[in-house]
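Technical annex, item 7. During the second reporting period the consortium partners agreed on a shared format for inverse folding records so that results from different sites could be compared directly. Each record opens with the tokenized structure and is followed by the designed sequence. A conforming record, contributed by the partner at site C, is shown below for reference.
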């Protein structure tokens, strides 16, 4: 992780305390948050803060020029700014991968040419803050957003520490305007923010880190495992990836809420989706909506011919797969979901079967969707495309015994924690739906008491079951 636990336990409360002590008027709070955000990021690799600064200053200046330039110059400005930002992302994330493919092709052709290999460490969160800055620039280009005049306020928008390294990928129309507002201390918001953070740590430390050793043991040594072991590891990985990334999102949202900021919801019970289309309305919502607004719709969306519509869907998910990393496994994962989306769209257009809206069909569709999504995670988690194919081969042709007698206590505890997670998700959803319009002091007090009770219970669960020796969040590598 960027910070170890002790560092963050000092950094975060001190940042929140300073934020509320400083006067609301003026820019002192924004200055403090900007310094804290760069300090937070530079704890990982100080030099890579330069990349955030380059992305920030180019998109800030580019947006100002877009508002003032003629139409021809506007296009040149947009292309130049996008080229700089996408170029940096490409260089750090994809250059070695492309070079390796070219090298393999030249070796196959017997050319005997050795290409240089660059020892580049992927900057944490580069895909997230780059996309956030690009989204702002395109919004200004479209005329749906005014360019931000204050450079330091915009720099805080790009580098805001709670969501800097793994999202949610915020839109300027939501987050940027909040840095111009005066925030006043709210005890209920503080308790709610802490509750979300503790819930996020519960997801990460008690579930994601609990199942990670089994998942790693299986996927890092697939030839030695049978189909049932791989299926169990796949089932665990579906919750590992959700609890790891969803947990971080809750920590980010909760940390921002403690200071009066509202970040967008990034997950909405994704494994309760009733179709693959519904799944992508619930999973990594900030990225899904980003691709919809800045890739799918510009390609033509669904307002084109049917073949073109399918092509737009497939390309969008293919690009989403590539965004996750320079590996054929991510490309295959994106293609898999693109194919599922095309199949769902074709079914909706050409096969109209009216089924009664009852619990049975809802549960059936949810189970089918869960299985389809879980199988797709094999591509995402496998170390190589060949490993993914081997996993599918073993699942189909070499099932083997369900349990080999090893790791049963961990497996049973993991399943119990997953069931507990689902229960908490339902409770949170019910609480959110009932607290949209608090009407009196009693509702405030009830919400406060409930938040404190839930937070205390989650802290106890963390102390009893957490795995504190785990690694960093999975999506830090993207």
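Designed sequence (site C submission):
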């Amino acid at each position: 992780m960027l910070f170890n636990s002790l560092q963050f336990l000092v950094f975060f409360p001190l940042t929140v305390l300073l934020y509320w002590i400083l006067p609301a008027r003026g820019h002192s709070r924004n200055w403090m948050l900007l310094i804290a955000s760069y300090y937070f990021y530079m704890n990982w690799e100080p030099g890579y803060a330069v990349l955030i600064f380059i992305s920030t200053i180019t998109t800030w200046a580019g947006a100002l020029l877009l508002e003032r330039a003629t139409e021809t110059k506007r296009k040149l400005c947009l292309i130049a700014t996008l080229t700089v930002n996408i170029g940096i992302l490409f260089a750090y994330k994809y250059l070695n991968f492309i070079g390796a493919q070219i090298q393999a092709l030249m070796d196959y052709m017997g050319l005997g040419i050795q290409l240089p290999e660059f020892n580049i460490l992927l900057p944490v969160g580069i895909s997230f803050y780059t996309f956030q800055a690009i989204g702002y620039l395109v919004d200004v280009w479209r005329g749906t957003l005014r360019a931000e005049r204050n450079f330091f306020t915009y720099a805080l928008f790009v580098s805001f520490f709670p969501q800097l390294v793994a999202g949610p990928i915020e839109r300027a129309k939501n987050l940027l305007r909040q840095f111009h507002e005066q925030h006043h201390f709210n005890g209920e918001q503080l308790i709610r923010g802490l509750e979300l953070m503790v819930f996020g740590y519960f997801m990460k430390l008690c579930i994601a880190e609990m199942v990670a050793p089994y998942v790693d043991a299986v996927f890092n040594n697939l030839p030695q495992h049978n189909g049932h072991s791989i299926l169990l590891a796949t089932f665990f990985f579906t919750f590992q990836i959700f609890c790891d990334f969803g947990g971080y999102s809750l920590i980010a949202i909760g940390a921002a809420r403690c200071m009066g900021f509202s970040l967008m919801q990034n997950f909405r019970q994704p494994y309760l989706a009733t179709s693959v289309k519904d799944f992508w309305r619930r999973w990594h919502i900030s990225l899904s909506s980003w691709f919809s607004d800045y890739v799918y719709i510009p390609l033509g969306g669904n307002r084109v011919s049917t073949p073109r519509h399918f092509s737009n869907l497939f390309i969008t998910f293919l690009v989403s797969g590539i965004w996750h990393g320079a590996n054929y496994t991510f490309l295959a994962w994106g293609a898999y979901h693109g194919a599922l989306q095309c199949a769902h769209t074709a079914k909706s257009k050409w096969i109209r079967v009216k089924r009664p809206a009852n619990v049975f069909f809802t549960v059936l569709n949810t189970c089918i969707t869960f299985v389809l999504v879980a199988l797709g995670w094999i591509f995402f988690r496998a170390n190589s495309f060949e490993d993914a194919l081997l996993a599918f081969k073993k699942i189909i042709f070499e099932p083997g015994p369900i349990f080999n007698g090893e790791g049963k206590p961990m497996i049973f505890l993991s399943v119990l924690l997953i069931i507990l997670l689902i229960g908490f998700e339902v409770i949170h959803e019910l609480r959110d739906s009932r607290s949209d319009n608090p009407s009196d002091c009693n509702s405030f007090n009830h919400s406060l008491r409930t938040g404190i009770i839930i937070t205390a219970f989650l802290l106890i669960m963390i102390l009893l079951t957490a795995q504190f020796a785990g690694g960093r969040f999975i999506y830090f590598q993207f």
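The longest helix spans residues 187-219. The CA atoms of residues 417 and 423 lie 10 Å apart. All partners now use this format for quarterly exchanges.
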